[in-house]
Amino acid sequence: MNKYMKYIRLFTTGMVLIQALSCSDFLDKNPLDQITGQTFWKSEAEASMALTGVYSRLLAYPFNHKDADFDIMGGDVSGNQGVSVIALAQGMILPTSGGLISSIYNNCYAGIGSCNFFLDNVERTPLNEATLNRYKGEVCFLRAMFYYMLAEHYGGVPLYTTSVTIDEAKVKQSTKDEVMQQIYTDLDFAITHLPDGPYSDGHAVKGSAQALKARVLLHDRQWQEAAELTDRIIQGGKFNLFDNYRTLFLASGQTNNPEIMFSARYLSPDIQTDLDVRWAWHAMVNPRQELVDAYECIDGLPITASPLYDPSNWRLNRDPRLLLTIKGFDDTAVNSAGQEVSFSYNAVSGTGYEPVKYCNWDALPIDYSTISEQDWILIRYADVLLMYAEARNEANGPDADVYSAVNRVRARVDMPPLPEGLTQDELRERIRNERRVEFALEGLRWSDILRWKTAEQIIPTLVDPGGVRRAFDPGKHYLLPFPQSEIDVNENLDQNPGY
Length: 499
What we know:
This protein is mainly α and 499 residues long. It contains 17 helices and 8 strands.
């Protein structure tokens, strides 16, 4: 099915399932059996419609462009126009804070509810075994993604693998190890049953599940297993780096893109976002100087060591990804026709910088009628290469394969290879910086510094526009608190330590 037909169906059928499965609070929702009557689950077409409804959960935060909140939390971005996450980024994290804290929890559980509902009912549909297992594999992959997002941010959480009533949902959280084991179980089922081919039509494939499992293994510091799994993806040859770093993040370059392994997909006018309104007009996402300074010069040296660095012209002689990711607030841009276009922002950047990545200059001038359809990339092949490099360096130390994986990512933008002879510690720092600049504004920075346990060193060094210094308490801030609304309705749920 092509992308266009998929998203027409995603909009219409997804709304049906959302009405049955979602609401403002996980424990305050309609019964999960609203569409299990005799008129549904009677054909493959209906099972496909239900599957599309499960995928529609990816259109909600935290699986869309508002992932930039994680870059604000991670210190590479500042928020503008009263972005609520900035208070959390400054250490004012409370169970009653709302915003990111409640959105992750509620939306992931809404997704899990959809997954469980599908898995509870799909076997009623007359499907051949291969199709049934493929559908179940896709939903197990999605459930693993939802649970991993929860475990990463809250630790142990209530674990449900079947549909539950409101009373049945009021359970104590499982341990994090138990949640992680369920994630691995779901991903192993998905890897076994998903098709081993490229990602093209929005449906997860084997490589999608393998890459997500590799990400989970890195989180668990299972270096050898992560290295072996990412190596299998690399040797499988189903994915590759795309040759245009700019259009990788625009709708014009995303159809059948060999680098994209999984994404939240959009097609205007029915399935659209306000990405360009928020990023390229409202100036709500402001890259920080610390991120700009992380980009090397074209000689492969950091700006503190390169003779090519000109403090009076930060754009000159820099890693090409810098100007493909960030622009000066007052800079013009170049559209796809090669024309310079200017901006009419309705706000001022607090840092002097604005995003380029994901912003569609062909949409300028932007106003409230502008609609965006860039797919939000959740997993891409460059991440597989850098996960492989990180895991192999941690497991075995520097070797030629580690250098090769990192240098493939650098070569895509004509950056020179890393210098030979680095120690394991030195190579670790270069890999971490490579992740920072390669995935800037893609929502990965916060999870990276959490799993590296470096947030406690990085966050307190940051001062936001306005002069407020950020704070990070390692005794509690490596996890978020459960939303107070959940504590209030589930007396069995224990709040995370320190909150």
